[in-house]
Amino acid sequence: KMDDDDDIPQLSSHTLAALQEFYLEQQQREGMKTSQGFNQYSIGSIEEDWQLSQFWYSDETALCLAKEAVLAAGKGGRIACISAPSVYQKLKERDNEDFSVCILEYDRRFSVYGEEFIFYDYNHPLDLPENLLPHSFDIVIADPPYLSEECLQKTAETIKYLTKGKILLCTGAVMEEQAAKHLGVKMCKFIPKHSRNLANEFRCYVNYASGLD
């Protein structure tokens, strides 16, 4: 008789240890949520969903981009985050400062943010609520969900509709030419990092004198 254990794939001890660590972290995180009364704006309150091509920035990157956005928007400025929820969450942590922010996002879990959440599907770039007036944002930060010219081109329509001028685009290094073509943005020296490493080299692009160089 064949040994039943034969067709059970054996995990290496390293993988097992990593898995256990992962589950422990998950449990701790769940525990933290209940104990802290759940800081709704912290990263991790909504987990990234790979199915939706979501990849959160590292904490440092999200913070750096949020600071840049606040500076670029100026006092009382308005900031729009398109498909860049981790920057939005960092901006919400700075809510003692003088600016306002909207998040345009396909993932409806972000509707917990109330009126600041605007459902957004890049396939319909101008299908936006009427109260979102053209050229009403001092800066638009966008991170198109896919590295394709079609996705960039459509997202660019939304960006150009919303911004008074300033654009901060985060996308792959391979998109440099298309980014210049569709949005007139140039690559910065600043290298954005993700909380999980992506296969594609990722960069930031701007069309104004930013603090990211």
TrEMBL record:
Keywords: Cytoplasm, Methyltransferase, Transferase. The keyword Disulfide bond does not apply. It comes from the Eukaryota. One of its GO terms (molecular function) is protein-lysine N-methyltransferase activity. InterPro entries: DNA_methylase_N6_adenine_CS, Efm5/EEF1AKMT1, Mlase_EEF1AKMT1/ZCCHC4, SAM-dependent_MTases_sf. It is found in: Cytoplasm. GO terms for biological process: methylation. SUPFAM superfamilies: S-adenosyl-L-methionine-dependent methyltransferases (SSF53335). It catalyses: L-lysyl-[protein] + 3 S-adenosyl-L-methionine = N(6),N(6),N(6)-trimethyl-L-lysyl-[protein] + 3 S-adenosyl-L-homocysteine + 3 H(+). GO terms for cellular component: cytoplasm. This is EFMT1 methyltransferase. It comes from Hippolais icterina (icterine warbler).
